Amino acid sequence: MPNKKEDVEEFARILLSTILGKTVRKVKVIPQKNILGIDTDRHGIRMDAYIEDISAEYDTTLVDAQIVSDIYDIEPNNKYEKESLPKRMRYYHGLIDTQLLASGLGYNKLQNVIIIIILPYDPFGINRMVYTIQNQCVEATALPYDDGAKKIFLYTKGTEGNPSQELKDMLKYIENTTQNNIANQNIESIHRMVERLKKNKEVGISYMKSWEREQLIRDEGRDEGQFRINQLNIKLIESGRMDDVVRSAKDRDYQQKLLEELNL
Q1: Over 90: is that where the pLDDT of 195 sits?
Q2: Within a 10 A sphere around the Cβ of 88, how many other Cβ atoms?
Q3: What whole-number distance in Å separates Cα of residue 107 and Cα of residue 29?
């Protein structure tokens, strides 16, 4: 039976292949990767899934010993932050880049970085399922300018554009990871992995993707009050505040105070 690392990497490989519309053969995944700010008083970031596409390293037809892997950051995001998303992506790109180029290497060795955000709301208001953002020359938009930085915003309910059926089915499943939304063999494989990861006590919350955490909330608490409490517990667990989890379960007044503190 595959172990958790193999499951997570196969999950990421299938997801990337579906989003990009091409075959990705091999990936390396670091779940919940933290990148600290340049100094202690600077904002750091935590990426849900930091993925390296290392397919080229396994291609025996290539002879270049200095193959540059592509870097992907996949961020399912249920928090509504439409106004700040573009600048958040700018910050993510800048901070990721600071980790990639070793001293003495030329800039041509800098890996491509593609940040993929999966959203349940339309980030730009024109009902597209896929928004791909790249830098370009304003005065001559056809001028080639490839700095290796790309953002892909995926709106799960979008209908405009021409996304593949595979991507439509995948995003529907991501939004609601149930048996009823298994539409093809890839999603069936992912569903089996998700079920195994849920049952594996060693995995813990750090291996659960954002959409899985949100689904867990919905499954365990259908009414609004329980929904808020489950949200509270997840935020406290992610922040390492286990004492507050225990105390809030026993003290309703303290629980309400925490809900107000975290704006839930």
Answers
A1: no
A2: 16
A3: 24
User: What's the whole-number average pLDDT of the chain?
Assistant: 76
Q: How many C-beta atoms lie closer than 10 Å to residue 205's C-beta?
A: 12
What would the two tokens of residue 89 be? Answer: 């992506």
Sheet holding 27-35, edge to edge: 27-35, 45-53, 70-76, 113-119, 149-155, 130-134
β-bridge mates for residue 35, sequence order: 45
Nearest to 175 by CA among 153, 161, 155: 155
What φ, ψ does residue 62 adopt, rounded to 5°?
Answer: -95, 140
**Cα(187)–Cα(254) distance, rounded to whole angstroms?**
42
Indicate yes or no: pTM above 0.70.
no
Residue 191, classed as helix, strand or coil, is helix
Burial class (CB in 10 A: 0-12, 13-18, 19+), 185: exposed
Q: Which string of DSSP letters, residue by residue, matches 55-74?
A: GGGG-TT---SSPPPEEEEE
What is the Cα–Cα distance from 150 to 116, expressed in whole angstroms? 9
Q: What is the pLDDT of residues 84-109, one digit of tens each?
A: 889 888 888 887 877 777 767 788 88
H/E run at residue 132: strand 130-134
The pLDDT, as a whole number, for residue 208 is 44
- Distance (Å) of CA 14 to CA 25, 64, 86, 178, 194: 9, 26, 27, 18, 13
Residues 210/75, Cβ–Cβ less than 8 Å: yes
CA atoms of 219 and 32, how far apart (whole Å): 23
pLDDT at 50: 66
Give the phi and the psi of residue 20 in degrees, each rounded to 5.
-85, -15
Determine the Cα–Cα distance for residues 213 and 215; give it in Å rounded to an integer: 5
CA angle 88, 90, 92 (to 5 degrees): 70
